Amino acid sequence: MAIEIKEIQKFERIGAHSHIKGLGLDENLRALDVADGLVGQKKAREAAGVIVRMIKSGKMAGKGILIAGPPGTGKTAIAVAISKELGKDIPFVQVSASEFYSAEMKKTEALIQAMRKAIGVRIKERRFVLEGEVVGLDYNMVPNPYNPTQKIPESATLTLATKDEKRTFTVSGRLALQFLYQGIEVGDVIMIDKETGRIVKLGKSERAKKYDIGEETVEVPSGRIEKEKEFTYVVTLHDLDEANARRRGGLFSLFEPVSKEIDSEVREAVDEQVKRWVEEGRAELIPGVLFIDETHLMDIELFAFMNRAMESEMAPIIILASNRGFAKIRGTDIVSPHGIPLDLLDRLLIITTEPYSREEIKKIIEIRADESKIKLSEEALEMLTDLGEKNSLRYAVQLLAPAYELAKLRNSDKIEVEDVKKASELFVDVSQSSSYLKKWEEKMLAQ
Ligand SMILES: Nc1ncnc2c1ncn2[C@@H]1O[C@H](COP(=O)(O)OP(=O)(O)O)[C@@H](O)[C@H]1O
Ligand SMILES: [Mg+2]
């Protein structure tokens, strides 16, 4: 199976949560008052800490978590903190349930793709390579048959050396061209994959460094030039699905963006292949996390599909977030806690978040301002805290940026009360904007 080497990309909407570095727990998983950018919400943070341990020790398979709480109480913030705690080796995929509804694909397809992006496969591969310092490189240049004014290499003579061995090779024109493109020269330490001819420049040899500064230097390898090496890389099940679909040709062309639906046959083949790799000890599954924000936007079909998919041995851990109490399950008239079907709720561990105290709101605004390198006076901070208490934390946090622009218009780099006041007049919060439109609609109807 063809594999493209790709780093796992953590899909994160940092923006509003860039100040969060972790859950802020001590070694006994006790939440500190203020740590890692997080303030208060201690019970939820401690619960999240236990979840992180369970995920890392593989005890969360087939289970899910629901973070439930009023808007602006840090549900998304805690999910982001969980992803930070998991580290970069464990996939963490963040989506809003609204993203499942698109014109490009069926909603269940969008969901299964998101789930498969959240499962990593660590692949170990042994390959024969040539590795050493380039101590001689001579090109045999000939005129380009298509453009005789240009010269291209017909072949090259390459001498590689380790601390213990020195060998000279004749390399093909195709490979010689790669050397030229990559700017490989004497003094570089390189590795060539014998099978594919891929060349990797590892750095300048320490012996050569006195001639060239600024480049990374590496030790000259010892031992044989030709050796078998083990490589490890992590791809997601979705990467393998795409690679496999592309290889089959039918579905994708090389130039088409690959955001299309993938055949279930392709997925089954990938699953089988991966299982075989795992059995042979060549691969390891890394179940990651799929975080679905705004869960109330999922409908009964998506919930049913997800519930079934969670049974599979290749399912990620699901984290849901909801700010609904009792609500209709979308697509039905059934009222259920958080608008989530009971059979799914049965397999969820539930964490709740609570509204913040005035002091906590103030501290969060301070941390956000600090993160964005924004200065504000004590009175301005008090006023934003008032707005956070009366309207919402999110509103107060969002006003920081426009208030800062207004301060700059006054040629100041510090937000004062007048800037906050002006910003809050220019930008209303969502309850104000919706009640404004409601009044307007009533007026229109009365006419
Ligand atoms: N306990 C906390 N500590 C620090 N920042 C927080 C905390 N809770 C929320 N925030 C920040 O406040 C804003 C609103 O919180 P958010 O996580 O979006 O709430 P929710 O998802 O519950 O609606 C975000 O910028 C978030 O990063
Ligand atoms: Mg949220």
UniProtKB/TrEMBL annotation:
Q: Which domain of life is it from?
A: Archaea
Q: What is its EC number?
A: 3.6.4.12
**EC class of the enzyme, as a word:** hydrolase
Keywords annotated in UniProt: ATP-binding, Helicase, Hydrolase, Nucleotide-binding
Q: Where is the AAA+ ATPase domain?
A: 61-355
Which molecular function terms from Gene Ontology are attached?
Answer: ATP binding; DNA helicase activity; hydrolase activity
Read off the Pfam families from this record.
TIP49, TIP49_C
User: What's this protein's family per the entry?
Assistant: Belongs to the RuvB family.
Tell me the protein's name: DNA helicase
Q: What is the lineage of its organism?
A: Archaea, Methanobacteriati, Methanobacteriota, Archaeoglobi, Archaeoglobales
